[in-house]
Amino acid sequence: MEVDLQAVRRVFEDVLNGRMLREQADRWAYAVVREEETGVVTYSPPGERERIWTGVMYLYGIDTKKAPDVYLHSNDDIREAMMAKLGWVVGDLAGDDSSGSRAAVAMLVRT
Amino acid sequence: MSVDDFRSQVDAASSDVGRRPDATAERSAFAAIVVQLRQTSPIDPNQRLSPERLHQIDRAFFGPFFREKYGTGGDKALENGRIRYYGPIQPANNAAELAGRRYVHEFDTITGCTRGWHETLDRMGNVRQVRPERRDGAMTHYQFDSNGRYRGSW
Q1: Is the predicted pLDDT of residue A102 greater than 70, yes or no?
Q2: CB-defined contacts A:B, below 8 A
Q3: CA distance A80 to chain B (A)
Q4: What's the whole-model pTM score?
């Protein structure tokens, strides 16, 4: 399995845009973690391994809830995490929606 | 049931699977996924290492493998030969008394098995939710109050 920085960024972006459920993002990250346990994951670019892994580990569990129908993390939390861990800024996202049901357009700008 | 009781039940279930990799029966609703990493050199199961000794071994052998990946938030050697690696707390800024979540990865130095779960902590540092990674893929959140008493699950 090969995981690249763009793929991780895209998962964050898709979650924020409502194109991907948080549950799907969590399972995607879990698959990476499982593969990593067997030592067959390659990272692209190789020099970004730490940043990629940090992003994956944030996505793993991103669907954690604080109540049966309420996610623990707000979209603002996820946006901040994406900026901190991947170095990207998501702009032009409409408001915050912890239920993840609202779609919005993201403009990605490298910091 | 307290958080510690809950962890003991998870311990019992996962330890059993660790000794019998072919076991398929769902022994416990709390059973978490256990990954057999690799064969480790035989260790007398009656031999118990002190947490200090375990830490020394961890630093020399397991640390580079696990700590870098899962233990950036710290680690703890347990009396039962297991080492827990704590990920960083991923903050939740709008979750009232809840501060955030972290992933916990546990390595059993005796069986070579690993398992993991997500914990949600309050602002006092108490574990208020545990979400184990289960074999059947079901996602269940187990809730506890601020005193560690089990409140229920969904």
Answers
A1: no
A2: 56
A3: 10
A4: 0.74
